Each structure stands twice: as C-alpha cells, then as structure tokens.
Amino acid sequence: MPHKFKRVMLKLSGEALMGNEPYGIDPAVVGEVAKEIKEVSRMGVEVAVVIGGGNIYRGVAASAGGMERSSADYMGMLATVLNALALQNSLERMDVPTRVLSAIEMKELAEPYIRRRALRHLEKKRVVIFAAGTGNPYFTTDTAAALRAMEIGAEVIIKATKVDGVYSADPVKDKKATKFDELTYLDVLQKGLKVMDTTAISLCMDNGLPIIVFNLKKPGNIIKVISGKKVGTIVRVKK
After folding, report:
1. Residue of 50, 55, 65, 53 lying closest to 20 (CA atoms)
2. CA 210, CA 45: separation in Å to the nearest integer?
3. Distances, alpha carbon 62 to alpha carbons 26, 73, 127, 200, in Å
4. Which residue from 129, 117, 112, 114 is spatially nearest to 47, judged by alpha carbons?
5. CB of 226 within 8 A of CB of 172?
6. Confidence band for 51, pLDDT divided at 50, 70 and 90
7. Which domains does the chain have, with CATH numbers?
8. Full DSSP string of the chain
9. Using one digit for the tens of pLDDT, what is the confidence trace for 193-228?
10. pLDDT digits (tens, 9 = 90+) for 155-195
C-alpha cells in the first residue's frame, strides 16, 4: 500500500491503552495498537511513538492534591515507562523489532535517549518508543512528542484520541459540538482547543510540523492516516 509519510511520530494517550478498564493497561487494546503499528512498519514507514501515563498516574492531578509538582511529574514519567514496555512487549511478540529509549536513565529496562541512536534505530526500521517524557518536570508528553518529532525529523505527528478529530467543544458533553476538518495552529491557540498543550502547539507552529488528530478506536485508522486518506482533523500552517 502506498504511504504519504516516510517517518512519523505517533502520540498515544495513556488513557487510550485502558480500553474499557477503569485503570491500567488492557492487553487487548495494546495488541490492537501493536498490530496496526506492525502493518505501518511493513509498509516501509519509520515509526516513533510517545505514550502518556494518565492510565496509571497523573502528575498534574497529584500536584493539585497537594504533592510537590516535580515529584508528581517524575512519578508520571515512570508511568509512561510502564506503558512503553507493555507496547514493546506486544510488538516484539509480533516479530517487530522495537527499542524503548528513556529520557530518565534505567539501563536494566531501556536504552538512554540519545538522538543519534534513535535515528539509527529508525533507519534500521525498528519501532522506537520514547519513554519518560522529556525527562523534565513541568512538561507534558504532548511537548515530548513535539520535541522528539523535531529531533528525529518526523514529517507529521499523528495523535490518537477517543474521538474522531478536533471539536469546538467536548462532543460527549455537548451534542452541538462541531468537528473541524482543518485548523491552523493559531486557530487552536486562539480558540483554546484541546489538541495538544500550548507549548507543544507552539513548537509545531514554529517548525511547521503538521498534526493529525484521529480516533484510535476505529480499526485501520492509523494505516489510513499514513496512506494520506482524509481522517480526523489536520492542524497546519494554512488551511
């Protein structure tokens, strides 16, 4: 199958791995995600992944509850490592060579993040999973995805969510919410739309990196996005 992109950054929320579970990781959901990544990799696309940790621990929520922010954020980073290892295990069981690179050094579990090493893995057609965010508190995994995407020269960030694009309001709570097919970065910032956090959007805007937001729950959507089909919402410089 022809593909539009050669190298992509897939941003997964931790919540996406929960499935219908109230907490933690649903192995069936991880398996489905891994299956699609395998298909994309077989198409010759170089795939990098950043996963959040909200299904296990949310640093911001803990901080709001009184915990010191830096400690809470570091705990959230560790949660992303758990998710990264779960996805790696699922991919390798499907014979997809995968490497986890962590921004926080933990040699027994993952390789330390080194940009040139990440690029080498991608060139060898290994799936690269970036864990532990940026390695710094006060930055989200959205920002980590934007930063790593820029560092590795990804052509696009594809962000998997629970809904089929970006809406004017939460479509679950507001039935009158309208879906956008295309947006500019300024639209997102000015309208306060929850695509990614403002730091991540600003990074993408400054470097002209497009973002495609789509529904992970619909099987085959990752492949459709990579193939250049109109799926979800695209955020870029001009409509």
Report:
1. 55
2. 17
3. 23, 9, 32, 22
4. 129
5. no
6. very high
7. 7-236 (3.40.1160.10)
8. ---S-SEEEEEE-GGGGTTT-SSS--HHHHHHHHHHHHHHHHTT-EEEEEE--TTT--HHHHHHTT--HHHHHHHHHHHHHHHHHHHHHHHHHTT--EEEEESS--TTTSEEP-HHHHHHHHHTT-EEEEESTTSSTT--HHHHHHHHHHHHT-SEEEEEESSSSEESS-TTT-TT--EESEEEHHHHHHHT--SS-HHHHHHHHHHT--EEEEETTSTTHHHHHHTT---SEEEES--
9. 989 999 999 999 999 999 999 999 898 999 999 998
10. 999 999 888 899 998 887 888 899 999 999 999 999 999 89
pTM above 0.90, yes or no: yes
Checking DSSP bridges between strand 46-51 and strand 7-12, what pairing results, if any?
parallel
Report the DSSP pairing between strands 179-180 and 111-112: unpaired
Burial class (CB in 10 A: 0-12, 13-18, 19+), 78: middle
**Spatial separation of the C-alpha atoms in residues 62 and 156, rounded to whole Å:** 32
Amino acid at position 209, single letter: L
CA gap 186, 127 in Å, rounded = 32
Q: What is the mean pLDDT of residues 1-13?
A: 88
Closest CA to 17 of 162, 214, 147, 145: 162
User: Taking a C-beta distance cutoff of 8 angstroms, is the pair 54, 23 a contact?
Assistant: no
* Structure-block tokens of residue 36: 């699609």
Q: What whole-number distance in Å separates Cα of residue 157 and Cα of residue 210? A: 6
Amino acid making up residue 144: A
Taking the C-alpha atoms of residue 42 and residue 39, their distance in angstroms, rounded to an integer, is 5
